[in-house]
Model the fold of this input.
Amino acid sequence: MMPFTQLVLASHNTGKLKELQAMLGDAIRVRSVGEFSSLEPEETGLSFIENAILKARNAAKVSGLPALADDSGLAVDALGGAPGIYSARYADGQGDAANNAKLLATLQGVPQAERGAQFVCALALVRHADDPLPIICEGLWHGRILEEARGEQGFGYDPLFWVPERDCSSAELSPAEKNQLSHRARAMALLRQRLELA
Done:
């Protein structure tokens, strides 16, 4: 068991804070980095793991607490893993609808069999800013990209992400179902094991 009762989440996203607190349970109190700083570190890494470590170290530095960071996105097979670490700013920071429109346009004419994709989540937990041994947990959620949006739930690329085991899009799942199946849920399950909270 890690020797702490609270940690700071390297995110200003209240939805993500709530989701991760629910997944971690009551043993650890999760606080937002927004309580300590409004500045976001520059994500200069070339992988989800590098960016997660960067964000975790920054959050630990500004808060003085152990820190957890999540870097996640969508990797499309036919696009060589793009949009990848640039998922949130795929359409130059114009938001989810623009990102989805760009992805659909880019995949125009790509047959169903070649539209495989996975949501990726890399979690990095550091005990302090200079922790030489961050805990890294990854989760992958395999599916494929639809030819048009379906569903009203979720956010980001959820309306375009087909979930084979449920025969629907990610945006057609209830929040509770998504929290059991998603890339973030899979990475968090590994983290809970590492922290002996499972």
In short: Residues 48-63 form the longest helix (16 residues).
